[in-house]
Design brief:
Blueprint: H1 7-28, E1 43-45, H2 49-62, H3 68-71, E2 74-82, E3 85-88, H4 90-98, E4 104-116, E5 125-135, E6 141-153, E7 158-166, H5 177-197
Parallel strand pairs: 2-7
Antiparallel strand pairs: 1-4, 2-3, 4-5, 5-6, 6-7
Helix pairs in contact: 4-5
Length: about 210
């Protein structure tokens, strides 16, 4: 791996850079504590054994436990896209999730529902996630409801794209006109900056 900065060296500047972005973006979300996990107009279905195992591994990342078995689910050229960042390549994805423990003191899964969507065909899977984050700064809690789509290559069973849409709202892209292009450039810059500051080793491989 090209980035092997220690967590103690990178955590403080990373927290100063990334916490305001997450706080501002989370405050724009309309989710509130105490509500049931929404399905965004789709029906809930039961996951297969393979889907459950895949989702359980990916949820380790959301629970501030970025371990090797979770990252093994991703292809080397995988892409992650959420409202504040576009991470291209596994190393960049590791940086995004490895940075989360420097921002949040706790992250709990409050609800998860696998969704029935004819546009998402197995082995790809889509699910709704209610995640309660506790910021280190100010000890503030924020519940975020997301629609998450894991695009899986059937030939390798690895994730090639991971889309996270807060409140089920589509992420803007360069195809959304001038401002969409500007936002895409900003999100790539954010992901690249985080990658330069974060330790990208899985948690179980750090000293």
């Amino acid at each position: 791996m090209s980035i092997t900065r220690t967590a103690t060296r990178s955590a403080r500047p990373l927290q100063l850079f990334y916490t305001p972005l997450r706080t501002q973006s989370f405050n724009m979300s309309s989710t509130t504590a105490g509500q049931d996990t929404p399905t965004f107009g789709l029906k809930e279905r039961q996951p297969s054994t393979e889907e459950k195992q895949l989702i359980d591994d990916v949820l380790q990342l959301y629970k501030l436990n970025p371990i090797s078995s979770a990252y093994a689910r991703y292809a080397e050229n995988a892409k992650f896209h959420d409202p504040i960042g576009i991470a291209e390549g596994l190393n960049s994805i590791k940086a995004q999730f490895n940075s989360m423990p420097s921002i949040f003191s706790k992250s709990e899964v409050k609800g998860m529902k696998v969704l029935e969507n004819p546009e998402v065909k197995p082995p790809s899977v889509q699910f709704a996630l209610s995640q309660l984050y506790t910021f280190k700064a100010g000890n503030m809690d924020k519940l975020v409801n997301s629609k998450i789509t894991l695009h899986v290559d059937p030939s390798t069973n690895q994730i090639t794209q991971h889309d996270e849409e807060w409140d089920g709202k589509p992420n803007s892209t360069g195809e959304d006109g001038f401002f969409g292009k500007l936002n895409e450039m900003r999100k790539k810059f954010t992901a690249n900056t985080v990658e330069k500051m974060a330790d990208t080793r899985p948690k179980d491989q750090q000293n």
